[in-house]
Write a structure and sequence with these properties.
about 25% helix, 14 helices, alpha+beta, about 25% strand, about 675 residues, 7-stranded antiparallel beta sheet, 25 strands
Length: about 675
């Protein structure tokens, strides 16, 4: 991969023959797991200004009408996020000279708090072409990563690396976006959770040509008087940032059935599914048909794969020639926009069936010969960074390259749940279709339950820990660590879909550590300590939720550390905490964290309710926070059965969040940084 240094540039044609469409990724990691940023794109003319406010794309204006710019959204990585933007360079208007790619933080946060900032560029097939790694950014809340610009008939990319202390509003204003109220704009553009009605930039009210009229020296222009005979001018409409959406209630209406034996008729029945082949065929057809009929859902699933926003058609059981005998991929997705077609082949697996490398390789070859853009695999497994589910070979001699993507059934269910429960779709019929799809995916006979097996290494590793024969470097321990990571990612999807909030795994590692190195370190730790541990960052919770599976004792621990309030007396803190936990389980363990000591007083909530003062240290040590923990036995089997380990982890996290974490005060907002007197570009 080509490495680009700050200020350097490179022609895209020199990197790949497939750069009519490119994907720019902005990546970062967070030491605390809570750091995040939002990308934005500005289209500039030859004068370095936007042609109008419509050339400013951010999270509430993510797609250009001509398809030239599409913000694809965030994807979790090993320790942070990657935010991707798709550019169709053939659709960029000829009077656009530069495409500026930036990101911003909000609520007083700055980029100096994030690690491993980089810009990456991939061609239309998803193959990485270059990387621009950014060093110290300083205390800036908006940052230009790079820009794609014209040089004659060629497109080039420049690594910029410039920060703006005054935030996204100042950056946008510097490039000609007209902001009506600086304070409101700063609040609207820098606060991702702010009021959506304040997020639209104000259209320019006066033509540029009129502003540039020169007055004679010494003359004072008189105020312009309105023409009384002229019809009243309609105000330029603001871009719509929020539309009326349809969501479904979480609680179903009271049934009219006479008794529980009456089963509601379903659009997608599962009773006839007898074999794995039946399940794969039905699941593929059901999913693809709903994707084509519900544009919001189809777009949600394909945007991250580089598909354009356009008319989608889907097909099942398509026969395609391949050597002596035709191949029949489970499905095909085609998207048309502006006369161009984007095509992906789909290979589906249900239950615990694994993807077959030979089968996927054949589809990659077919897609390359026919000029298709992607192959999408769909199964209950969860893909991990740096650990592909199937190994395929790419023929470098072929001009056309095909991207290989993976989607888990848990992610499909998550996206459906987010739309029908929290974000909404355009009409009730679409909401009902998604509800039927979700019911189908969650039915025990569909085979689409998500990751549900810790693998063949699970039992030998547990036995090795029990009899202390498991040694560091054992490959089976690494397999268990990878399964554990897949499980935690799925737990985050399920919890996030239910809450309608971000729930992401936090994976702490030293800067520059590759995923394989991090997992090898965790495998050695498993061999030594007999424990698996994971951290989850759930939006609007005051700390990181920690899940620990102790394979020696067979117990699961879910816990959270909350900081001590900045004001008030320790006794008031403890009384208020006990009141907050009025509905929490009586066996909740509460520990006082004190400065300079390994631990303070600890007890169960049941004992503390009548006497909160028991939480105060006897020696008067300074309290730094409190640790809340729940314990439960973990399942003995490796699967997702009632007694299985996977189900026990899922239930433990769900119970802890709903009964404990959800009742705590959310994390306090960051204090906003003082406004500088003037715009100050800085260099990292």
């Amino acid at each position: 991969m080509y490495e680009l240094s700050k200020g350097a540039n490179v022609g895209l044609a020199a990197l790949s023959e497939n750069t009519d469409s490119v994907i720019v990724g902005l990546e970062w990691t967070s030491p605390t797991g809570e750091g995040d940023a939002d990308v934005s794109v500005l289209l500039l003319d030859a004068a370095g200004k936007v042609r109008s406010d419509a050339d400013f794309y951010f999270y509430n204006n993510p797609v250009a009408a001509d398809g030239s710019v599409q913000l694809l959204g965030k994807t979790p990585t090993g320790g942070g996020n990657v935010d991707r933007i798709s550019f169709d360079l053939t659709a960029v208007p000829p009077d656009v000279d530069r495409l500026v790619v930036a990101a911003s933080r909000y609520a007083g946060a700055h980029f100096g708090e994030l690690d491993d900032l980089r810009l990456t560029l991939a061609d239309g097939s998803g193959e990485g072409l270059l990387r621009f790694t950014i060093g110290d950014t300083g205390a800036v809340s908006a940052f230009i990563f790079g820009e794609i610009y014209r040089r004659g008939e060629e497109w080039k990319l420049r690594a910029v690396g410039q920060g703006y202390e005054a935030g996204l509003a100042a950056l946008a204003t510097d490039f000609g976006v007209d902001i009506e109220d600086d304070a409101a704009a700063e609040q609207a553009l820098d606060d991702e959770a702010g009021d959506e009605k304040a997020l639209a930039p104000t259209p320019v009210q006066e033509p540029a040509a009129e502003r540039e009229v020169m007055m004679p020296t010494g003359a004072v222009p008189a105020p312009r008087q309105p023409d009384p005979e002229a019809p009243p001018k309609k105000p330029t409409p603001r871009p719509r940032t929020a539309k009326k959406k349809v969501t479904l209630p979480k609680v179903a209406k009271k049934s009219l059935a006479e008794n529980d034996s009456w089963k509601e008729a379903r659009l997608f029945p599962v009773s006839v599914l007898k074999s794995d082949r039946d399940r794969e065929t039905r699941a593929t057809s059901v999913l693809l048909s709903v994707m084509a009929q519900v544009p919001e859902f189809g777009r949600r699933l394909t945007a991250a794969f580089g598909a354009p926003a356009g008319r989608m058609e889907t097909f099942a059981e398509v026969s395609l020639p391949h050597g002596d005998s035709p191949r029949r991929p489970d499905g095909v997705i085609r998207v048309e926009r502006a006369g161009k077609l984007w095509t992906a082949l789909v290979e589906t697996k249900t239950n615990g069936n694994a993807l077959k490398a030979e089968q996927v390789q054949a589809y990659m070859d077919i897609a390359a010969r026919r000029g298709y853009e992607a192959v999408i695999t769909l199964s209950n497994d969860v893909a991990l960074e740096g650990s592909p589910l199937v190994d395929v070979k790419i023929d470098g001699r072929r001009k056309h390259k095909v991207a290989l993507w993976h989607l888990s059934w848990a992610e499909v269910a998550y996206q459906a749940q987010m739309l029908i429960r929290h974000e909404g779709v355009s009409n009730m019929a679409h909401a009902w279709l998604l509800q039927e799809l979700l019911h189908y995916l969650q039915h025990e006979n569909s085979g689409c339950h998500g990751f549900q097996n810790m693998g063949a290494a699970w039992v030998p590793v547990r036995n090795g820990i029990d009899d202390e024969t498991l040694c560091q470097g054992d490959r089976r321990a690494l397999e268990v660590v990878e399964s554990w990571e897949r499980l935690i990612r799925q737990v985050c999807l399920r919890l996030g879909g239910e809450l309608g909030q971000k729930a992401l795994p936090v994976q702490r590692a030293k800067r520059g550590t590759a995923p394989a190195e991090r997992r090898a370190r965790l495998a050695d730790q498993l061999c030594l300590e007999g424990r698996l541990q994971a951290e989850l960052r759930v939006e609007n919770t005051p700390g990181v939720l920690v899940v620990t599976a102790d394979l020696r004792t067979g117990r699961l621990r879910t816990s959270i550390d909350i900081p001590a309030p900045p004001r008030g007396s320790p006794l008031i803190w403890t009384k208020r905490l006990v009141r907050r936990l009025a509905e929490a389980p009586a066996d909740l363990h509460v520990e006082t964290l004190v400065e300079g000591e390994t631990g303070g007083p600890r007890s169960t909530l049941e004992r503390l309710r009548p006497e909160p003062a028991d939480m105060l240290p006897k020696n008067g040590a300074r309290i730094t926070g409190f640790r809340l923990s729940l314990f439960k036995g973990m399942g003995s089997s490796r699967g997702n059965a009632e007694s299985g380990f996977i189900r026990s982890v899922d239930e433990a996290v769900h119970r802890f969040h709903t009964t404990v974490a959800a009742h705590l005060d959310p994390a306090p907002p960051r204090r906003p940084a003082p406004e500088p007197e003037a715009l100050t570009p800085t260099s990292p």
